[in-house]
Design goal:
The complex is a heterodimer of chains A (255) and B (220).
Chain A lengths: L4 E10 L2 E11 L4 E6 L5 H8 L7 E6 L2 E2 L2 E4 L3 E4 L2 H8 L2 E4 L11 H11 L5 H14 L15 H13 L5 E5 L7 H16 L4 E4 L3 H7 L2 E6 L2 E6 L1 H6 L4 H9 L3
Parallel strand pairs in A: 3-10, 3-11, 8-9, 9-10
Antiparallel strand pairs in A: 1-2, 1-4, 4-5, 6-7, 11-12
Chain B lengths: L7 H5 L1 H33 L4 H15 L3 H11 L9 H27 L2 H9 L4 H31 L11 H12 L2 H30 L4
The chains are: A alpha/beta (255), B mainly alpha (220).
The structure holds adenosine-5'-triphosphate and magnesium ion (MG).
The site of magnesium ion (MG) has 4 residues of chain A, from α1.
């Protein structure tokens, strides 16, 4: 069986600055991989490349065996795929953002329904029942008719996660989904992520919550200056970090 | 000063004034609707990545905004026919006011668009929407609600600008007021009543739009 996500030799620059300098990473079905690393090490950029929100110059990303974003055309020239193809491939991954990014003019349930109706072409009734099912799963069924502006940050983030996962993606990408939240709201969101992980969802998540990463991950990846500096299981990474950099990084972050 | 006010000639002609007002409102509504369409296109044009599109949109907006509307009205009605585009008075005025409205509304829409958080578009992309669907389902509805207050001001200005249609003898309120004035010599009464009607109608439009704003406002 092909892996859910296979990244090989990924390079990405912003202008002259190379931000990802050759990333190789593979996620099998059910893997929960945490990306950790200091600010500016390229974690967000890596997730955004997987979701095709950023172009990348070199390397390949495969989702369930399909190369995404680009096609090799004649003379080994890469060409970005047409918008429709990109949109279809993007829908195979679900993304939750640091800033939630809910659609402010729609209620919670409408937020979840939009992609189901417009991308998956579901009928409204079906979309509503799928949306309600997922809102219930994240504990937001009582607030389904509230607008984002009427919800707390933690509640908004749970709706945003429901919106992404309702699309039935192959893999979920989480980018610091708790770092914009007040401390007392972090736990409710992490509980949702943990619940999805326990359910076998494949996920790639960026987090500064080291304790959470340790508990939930099948693999932890430490990034430094655009490269994977060290990777291993939770026990290896938190119990016996090999490189000095990772030791330093862990020493500076509270567990 | 000892002036005998006499409004009877105006009361006798109230139907003309009402008719003129009705036409003015019609002109405003149609032009605003078309102008909103043009304004949206121009706003997206101004923010486009394509240089030519951007150039065309910017040129249109600045050319129109730097020309007095009366000149535009006269140009479209008298000069365009010489170039082979002949429109009747009303169509010509609607054409002019739409183009004029488009340029002003484009500015409003543009600032509304740049004020939107970038994450909105990306959240749309992330659930597999195409750029067009993102625009129609997310960007435009959110932006529109955000700019409604400044749109209201523009709508009222545009309604007042319909009084300039009288310059090409479109029979609006101002046109009939002038006619009554000329025929009755009741200068003060006529223009007093005409001004009052404009004031009252503008006030009514403003409160209608305010109510619309409240209804459409994004709850928080
Ligand atoms: N749009 C952009 N244009 C230019 N440079 C960018 C852009 N986005 C990110 N960068 C740069 O790329 C590098 C990696 O950024 P990235 O956001 O991926 O880091 P990160 O690991 O997610 O950091 P953080 O923990 O602060 O979120 C940084 O040096 C950043 O300044
Ligand atoms: Mg980041």
């Amino acid at each position: 069986m092909s892996p859910i996500l296979n990244i090989s030799g990924l390079h990405k620059s912003f202008g002259q600055v190379e931000v990802l300098k050759g990333i190789d990473l593979t996620l099998q079905q059910g893997d929960v991989v945490s990306l950790i690393g200091s600010s500016g090490s390229g974690k967000t950029t890596l997730l955004r490349c997987v979701n095709l929100l950023e172009d990348f110059e070199q390397g390949e990303i495969e989702l369930v065996g399909e190369t995404i974003g680009y096609r090799e055309s004649s003379g080994s020239q890469r060409r970005r795929l047409p918008e429709r193809e990109i949109a279809r491939q993007r829908a195979m991954t679900g993304m939750a953002f640091q800033q939630f990014n809910l659609f402010p003019h729609m209620t919670a349930v409408q937020n979840v329904m939009l992609g189901l109706i417009k991308t998956k072409r579901m009928a409204k009734d079906e979309a509503r029942s799928v949306a309600e099912k997922w809102l219930e799963r994240v504990g937001m069924e009582a607030r389904r008719d509230h607008f984002p502006g009427q919800l707390s940050g933690g509640q908004q983030q749970r709706v945003a996660i429901a919106r992404a996962i309702a699309m039935n993606p192959q893999i979920m990408l989480f980018d610091e989904v708790t770092s914009a939240l007040d401390p007392e709201l972090v736990a409710e969101v992490l509980a949702v992520v943990r619940d999805l992980a326990n359910d076998g969802m494949t996920m790639l998540l960026v987090t500064h919550e080291m304790r959470f990463a340790r508990d939930v991950s099948t693999k932890v990846v430490f990034m430094h200056q655009g490269r994977i500096h060290e990777e291993g299981t939770s026990e290896e990474m938190f119990g016996a970090p090999k490189t000095e950099r990772l030791q330093g990084f862990l020493a500076n972050s509270q567990i | 000063m000892n002036y005998d006010f006499n409004f009877s000639v105006i009361w006798r002609n109230w139907d003309l004034l009402a008719q003129g007002l009705g036409l003015g409102l019609f002109l405003a509504i149609v032009s605003i609707a078309i102008g909103c369409g043009i304004g949206l296109l121009a706003a997206f044009g101004m923010l486009s990545r394509q240089k030519t599109l951007r150039w065309i949109a910017v040129a249109y907006v600045s050319a129109i905004r730097n020309t007095p509307i009366l000149v535009l009205i006269l140009f479209c009605y008298f000069a365009l026919p010489q170039l082979g585009i002949a429109l009747d008075k009303i169509s010509s005025f609607i054409f002019t006011l739409s183009i004029y409205a488009g340029a002003y509304l484009a500015e409003v829409f543009r600032s509304g668009l740049v004020a939107l958080p970038k994450g909105l578009r990306e959240a749309g992309l992330a659930i597999g929407l195409t750029e067009l669907k993102i625009k129609t389902n997310i960007i435009i509805p959110v932006m529109f609600r955000n700019v409604l207050p400044s749109l209201s001001n523009n709508f009222i200005s545009l309604f007042k600008d319909t009084s300039l249609a009288a310059a090409i003898a479109v029979p609006d309120l101002t046109f009939y007021a002038r006619k009554i004035n000329v025929e009755s010599f009741r200068v003060i009464e006529t223009w007093m009543v005409a001004s009052m009607i404009y004031v009252v109608v503008c006030y009514m439009i403003a409160s209608l739009l305010r109510r619309l704003e409240q209804r459409l406002a994004i709850p928080r």
